[in-house]
Amino acid sequence: MAGYAAEAGAAPSAERGAAFFAATQVGGKPDTPSCSTCHTANPRAEGRTRAGKAIEPMAASVSPTRYTDFKFVEKWFGRNCDSVLGRACTPGEKADFIAYMASL
CA-to-CA distance for 90 and 55, rounded, in angstroms? Predict the structure, then answer.
């Protein structure tokens, strides 16, 4: 998270991360308008892919190793940001998202 925050030039905000997670977006795929479409509105709960495959909870309190592997995190930000937003997430969005998940 520190790397994303440094690149963004701003301190991460769990509040902004929560708003980002819950927001309905318009640039991505119509069947994935928000993060919570697959990950549920409760980040502590297990989510489901569009194909029905289980997704481990997003909250760091439930999945403590979820954000420890930078390559893994980048892989999923790459896929999911494109699907939901239709573009790459900014470093600030990534930092805020992780700050929110770390706060839960």
Answer: 23
